[in-house]
Design brief:
binds S-adenosylmethionine; binds iron/sulfur cluster; nine-stranded mixed β-sheet; binds magnesium ion; 257 residues; binds the ligand Nc1nc2[nH]cc(C(=O)O)c2c(=O)[nH]1; TIM Barrel; alpha/beta
């Protein structure tokens, strides 16, 4: 099992900026403020965290990808002719070339970046979709998604998962933002409340309760069916917004959905 936090680059870079692309597809945005909006997704591979529940296992725990030139990615997006483009991963901001891609797409498309909030970017972003990772995301030998002990990743994940400077920068920089928390149960709420307070303390921007979204943990329809009502009830109780996972409800999170 790969345990490095980066994907190995090919020997030659003769074609200019390249990105490890896991998948590129058209679907409906399944999560967040823009749920239901037709969008083209660009999924990079490689992540600096290892959430035990990662629904994109082949971009984090065991990354797979093709190396594509930024211009090649732009051409595939153009061919699908969306209004909205979602750049996700893996963690898209671990790659410097993601900034180049965002800059190339910015004039034509509405850009959402799905990020775990641990890294900053100067690139143009319309919606920073920030999903800070809670203590309940940390991998342990008991919950890790493979037979292998998560080893160094328990500590690496735990020490890297929150970076207030990056969170402030992402909130301040984008045209709009959302804080989209994966919720496993009621025990996550004290940490969410305290982190939202901390973020309010470091950004000059207003963080409304309606910018805070609770998303049920669940990679499959069955798993989601077990968590979503409790999470919706928690959102109503605490005054936050609830977000569904439409692609899981509709297509069971199959590849390219
Ligand atoms: C695969 S991540 C990629 C972007 C970035 N690495 C991040 O975590 O925000 C895309 C979105 O899926 C969410 N996610 C991943 N696994 C999930 C699960 N099992 N249940 C609910 N949401 C999940 C993440 O929190 C994030 O909002
Ligand atoms: N339909 C759909 N909507 C999504 N919103 C965020 C996603 C992601 O994996 O970042 C995602 C995804 O994988 N599929
Ligand atoms: S930060 Fe995102 S891509 Fe990385 S392991 Fe967690 S959910 Fe998966
Ligand atoms: Mg997804």
């Amino acid at each position: 099992m790969p345990v490095s936090d980066s994907v190995s680059r090919p020997d030659t870079d003769a074609d200019g900026d390249r990105l490890p692309i896991n998948e590129l597809f058209a679907s409906l945005q399944g999560e967040g403020k823009l749920a239901g909006v037709p969008s083209t997704f660009v999924r990079t591979s490689g992540c600096n965290l290892r959430c035990w529940f990662c629904d994109s296992y082949h971009t984090s725990w065991e990354p797979t990808h093709a190396w594509m030139g930024v211009e090649e990615v732009v051409a595939e997006v153009d061919a699908l002719a969306p209004e909205h483009v979602v750049v996700t991963g893996g963690e898209p901001l671990v790659h410097d070339e993601t900034a180049t891609l965002l800059s190339e797409l910015a004039d034509e498309y509405h850009l959402t970046v799905e990020t775990n909030g641990t890294l900053e970017t100067d690139a143009p972003v319309d919606l920073a979709s920030i999903s800070p990772k809670l203590a309940s995301s940390t991998p342990t030998p008991e919950n890790a998604p493979t037979d292998t002990d998560p080893g160094v990743w328990t500590d690496k994940h735990e020490s890297a998962r929150i970076d207030l400077d990056s969170l402030a920068s992402l909130v301040d920089h984008a045209d709009d933002f959302q804080l989209k928390f994966v919720v496993t149960g009621r025990d996550d709420l004290p940490e969410i409340e305290s982190l939202v307070d901390d973020i309010r303390g470091v950004t000059s921007r207003e963080v409304r309760d309606s910018d805070v979204l609770l998303m049920p943990e669940g990679q499959t329809r069955d798993a989601l069916a077990r968590t979503r009502t409790d999470v919706a009830d928690l959102a109503a109780e605490f005054g936050y917004r609830y977000t569904p996972r439409l692609h899981v409800d509709l297509w069971n999170d199959a590849p390219e959905t």
